[in-house]
Amino acid sequence: MDQPSGRSFMQVLCEKYSPENFPYRRGPGMGVHVPATPQGSPMKDRLNLPSVLVLNSCGITCAGDENEIAAFCAHVSELDLSDNKLEDWHEVSKIVSNVPHLEFLNLSSNPLSLSVLERRCAGSFAGVRKLVLNNSKASWETVHTILQELPDLEELFLCLNDYETVSCSPVCCQSLKLLHITDNNLQDWTEIRKLGIMFPSLDTLILANNNLTTIEESEDSLARLFPNLRSINLHKSGLHCWEDIDKLNSFPKLEEVKLLGIPLLQSYTTEERRKLLIASRLPSIVKLNGSIVADGEREDSERFFIRYYMEFPEEEVPFRYHELVTKYGKLEPLAVVDLRPQSSAKVEVHFKDKVEEMSIRLDQTVAELKKQLKTVVQLSTSNMLLFYLDHEAPFGPEEMKYNSRALHSYGIRDGDKLYVESRMK
């Protein structure tokens, strides 16, 4: 059912967390708190609020009574207001300024681009450490205002905001550790480098689903731009050159890379993608596409890399190939082993004093083999006892008593023996 428009934060709060809808529970770990309320408050003892409030998709357009927000939300640390109808930053400020211990705020999918965020309003967000503005179409001017007023901001989410460019902030944000800016339209590296300038302490940069086509930067400059970057996600970017992957090694602290769905890797098999990335282009990372790179896998990948390029023309062989040859020496090509099941076998058929060599199909059943043997041993299938002797087995012949069993299930190989006896002796 659609929520009515024009509802206040406090109205929705009272409805959702009333004792009828959210009964108070005692006991450790329940995460429910009943705050003290002002003397004479009509709401006293009515609401049982947890410290994490989820009020998404409730049609909220305004704050409501600020005194009541302050009375009931003094202990709240996380607030999800995503997918509401908040379009005025002043109303958001009225809510947040009365939640003094707020650390996480989600404002995704609210039409906040319709108003300007003034610095005095942004000041009410000062304690927030994690801010989500996905699909809010927040302008860079709004983001800059927030950055200036949130000295402890550690994580910022700016996905689905239709950014084609990045506007540099007049001041650096030294506190930000994680930037999630997926599903935008950032294609030019000159825009991405601005993020390094704005966020010099960045630990994690998630750029998935941006059509970044190349990394146009010198190695020295990259190291200065992202000196603390530990993890980067470039899933479904437009990178198409190995040289772009090489440049990721310029980030001095990089440990984790995600690179699925890029044009460069489309022509390789799954095994080739991972091993070539580990061995040649990202020799120092400890996690690739979410999986830990163990020491054994790194060595396997490096040996794979040598064998992969050993037949290439000299001018097409990467420099890394020569480094690895120095480390491991020139390797012999791996033997080609055909693991397909054997389709036929040459066996000896023994009956009385006769021995005949035959080629039999292994995809047939025991019953079908008996039909094939009728003309050899001159016995009817019903009067035929059939035994199989593996020439390497120490246990003697095995009776092939189940007519519907496939021959390949016995593991018959060239040189094995079949013995035929008559039931009537």
Automatic annotation (TrEMBL):
Q: Where in the cell is it found?
A: Cytoplasm, Cytoskeleton
Protein name (Swiss-Prot/TrEMBL): Tubulin-specific chaperone cofactor E-like protein
What are the Ubiquitin-like domain coordinates in residue numbering?
A: 352-421
**Ranges in coiled-coil conformation:** none
UniProt organism field: Crypturellus soui
Q: Does the keyword Repeat apply?
A: yes
Which UniProt key words apply to this protein? Coiled coil, Cytoplasm, Cytoskeleton, Leucine-rich repeat, Phosphoprotein, Repeat
Pfam families according to UniProt: Ubiquitin_2 (PF14560)
A GO-annotated cellular component: cytoskeleton
- Function according to Swiss-Prot or TrEMBL: Acts as a regulator of tubulin stability.
